[in-house]
């Protein structure tokens, strides 16, 4: 391990101690004089100062300034150039151990890991909505604040989505144990789903006490890890307190085929929340910034908000978990990844044990070694069938016109007319009866709705949807109850019975006050 460069002299700050190194920079603890507080200062190493690293350092400062108001992203206070010409960033000092240190020192409860996962999903979703890919999510980049909240840090190799495909964006770093399979084929551009893989791999690491493809007893060199990441099935977590539903969520987020993963970090967050509900835990709030944070006062209204908490509905997971393709071990050929010039090849440090290779490495282009094609998984549709309404029979009656003549003449009656004509068509089936007794109760910020189906038949499902909420999605469940996070004064849902043949009942609606 190299020795850090001396801490630079910064006006208004006094150096306290060296904190750590990573990539092209050193991090020190400084005492800020006004206001009086401890801060972390990230300083570019003297031997790393060049046009490319300066541009990347400036970009990191700008990205962090854009996102650091998020409660799960480290806060930036200042950026500048030291008197000796080194760029620096002054950040929030997180005094508690980061996730890398924590999982090596303790076995963290599953509930806490779920909470951290949902909070980080909010940070990643906000980052993605700003058009930014983090590209280096791993345990050591998840810091812990004094209030024991996780914050995502180190945006040093992040990139705006518009820059993907450029030479600078392609020559990115990667941390092998938490990188997705497509990261090892330089011809495949990384997108948001790569961040979801790395986030899920980070949560897996905390639960398993080692990186996902680290094998106890080895070998765990870089080439070994890359080969397993690309071709080996995800090992099962051997923890009795981890429910199968959580294993399924992590397995989907870490699917070797990017198209089979969750589409967004918000989808992953909702899946983790559903596991929380299953474990009878209070669902963790998701903090998400609005898609268009820069709006005029007229557009916002009289009560501007600096952050949108966008958790509205916690969707239930499908009744049948998705089936993931299991690659044949050893099907992929030997891999010899090529790294950018001047960085060198990865060493043979282990994946998840103490001394793990957590160094962010450079991802370079190579002529061969592309990933084997993974067949796209067919997904079950979550959209309920739209029931056809029952058509009524039209009964036509012809009333005889009674004509009378003057002088007391007898009335003239027309010929008899049939008032009903029997149909020869088959009768139209009638849909199922609506649910009854739909009601909700609130406990611990979670609204739980139950109901009874008086005409329940085999194959019936229940389609429920939260009402009064923008972009709420309809969800099919096999049986009550339905639970949603209550983040407003009241919560309302509608429920329909969906029969096996697609017929639907009328909707029943119920509300519950917080």
UniProtKB/TrEMBL annotation:
Protein's name in the database: non-specific serine/threonine protein kinase
UniProt signal peptide: none
Keyword entries, A-Z: ATP-binding, Kinase, Nucleotide-binding, Serine/threonine-protein kinase, Transferase
Gene3D superfamilies listed in its UniProt record: Phosphorylase Kinase, domain 1, Transferase(Phosphotransferase) domain 1
Native source species: Nakamurella sp. A5-74
Pfam families (UniProt xref): Pkinase
EC number(s) stated in the UniProt entry for this protein: 2.7.11.1
Lineage of producing organism: Bacteria, Bacillati, Actinomycetota, Actinomycetes, Nakamurellales
KW ATP-binding (keyword) present: yes
Domain Protein kinase, residue spans: 13-277
InterPro entries, per database record: Kinase-like_dom_sf, Prot_kinase_dom, Protein_kinase_ATP_BS, Ser/Thr_kinase_AS
Composition skew (Low complexity), residue ranges: 343-357
Residues engaged in binding ATP: 42
SUPFAM superfamilies: Protein kinase-like (PK-like)
């Amino acid at each position: 391990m190299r020795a850090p460069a001396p801490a630079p002299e910064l006006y208004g700050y006094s150096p306290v101690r060296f904190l750590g190194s990573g990539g092209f920079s050193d991090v020190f603890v400084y005492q800020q004089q006004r206001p009086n507080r401890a801060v972390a200062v990230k300083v570019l190493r003297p031997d790393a100062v060049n046009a490319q690293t300066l541009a990347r350092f400036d970009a990191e400062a700008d990205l962090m300034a854009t996102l650091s108001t998020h409660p799960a992203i480290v806060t930036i206070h200042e950026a500048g150039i030291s008197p000796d010409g080194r760029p620096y960033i002054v950040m929030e000092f997180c005094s508690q151990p980061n996730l890398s240190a924590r999982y090596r020192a303790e076995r963290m409860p599953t509930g806490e890991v779920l909470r951290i996962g949902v909070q980080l999903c909010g940070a990643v979703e906000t980052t993605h909505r700003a058009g930014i890919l983090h590209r280096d999510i791993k345990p050591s980049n998840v810091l812990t604040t004094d209030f024991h909240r996780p914050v995502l840090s180190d945006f040093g190799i992040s990139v705006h989505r518009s820059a993907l495909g450029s030479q600078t964006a392609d020559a990115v770093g990667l941390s092998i144990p938490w990188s997705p399979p497509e990261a090892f084929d330089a011809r495949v551009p990384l997108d948001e789903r790569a961040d979801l893989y790395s986030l899920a791999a980070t949560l897996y690491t905390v639960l398993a006490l080692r990186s996902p493809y680290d094998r106890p007893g080895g070998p765990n060199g870089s080439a070994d890890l890359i080969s397993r990441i690309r071709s080996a099935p995800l090992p099962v977590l051997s923890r009795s307190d981890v429910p199968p539903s959580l294993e399924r969520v992590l397995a989907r987020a870490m699917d070797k085929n990017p198209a089979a993963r969750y589409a967004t970090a918000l989808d992953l967050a909702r899946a983790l929340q559903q596991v929380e509900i299953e474990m009878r835990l209070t669902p963790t709030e998701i903090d998400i910034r609005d898609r268009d944070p820069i709006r005029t006062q007229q557009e916002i209204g009289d009560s501007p908000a600096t952050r949108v908490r966008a958790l509205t509905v916690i969707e239930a997971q499908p009744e049948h978990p998705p089936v993931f393709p299991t690659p044949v071990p050893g099907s992929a050929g030997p891999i010899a990844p090529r790294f950018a010039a001047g960085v060198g090849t990865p060493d043979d440090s282990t994946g998840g044990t103490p001394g793990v290779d957590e160094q962010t490495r450079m991802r370079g282009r190579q002529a061969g070694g592309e990933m084997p094609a993974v067949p796209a998984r067919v997904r079950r549709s979550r959209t309920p069938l739209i029931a056809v309404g029952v058509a009524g029979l039209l009964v036509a009656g012809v009333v005889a016109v009674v004509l009378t003549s003057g002088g007391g003449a007898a009335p003239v009656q027309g010929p008899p007319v049939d008032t009903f004509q029997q149909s020869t068509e088959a009768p139209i089936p009638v849909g199922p009866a609506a649910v009854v007794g739909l009601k909700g109760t609130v406990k611990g910020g979670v609204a739980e709705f139950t109901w009874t189906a008086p005409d329940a038949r085999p194959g019936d499902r229940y389609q429920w949807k939260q009402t009064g909420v923008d972009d709420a999605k309809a969800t099919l469940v096999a049986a009550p109850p339905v639970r949603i996070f209550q983040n407003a004064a009241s919560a309302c849902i509608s429920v329909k019975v969906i029969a096996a043949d697609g017929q639907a009942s009328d909707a029943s609606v119920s509300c519950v006050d917080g």
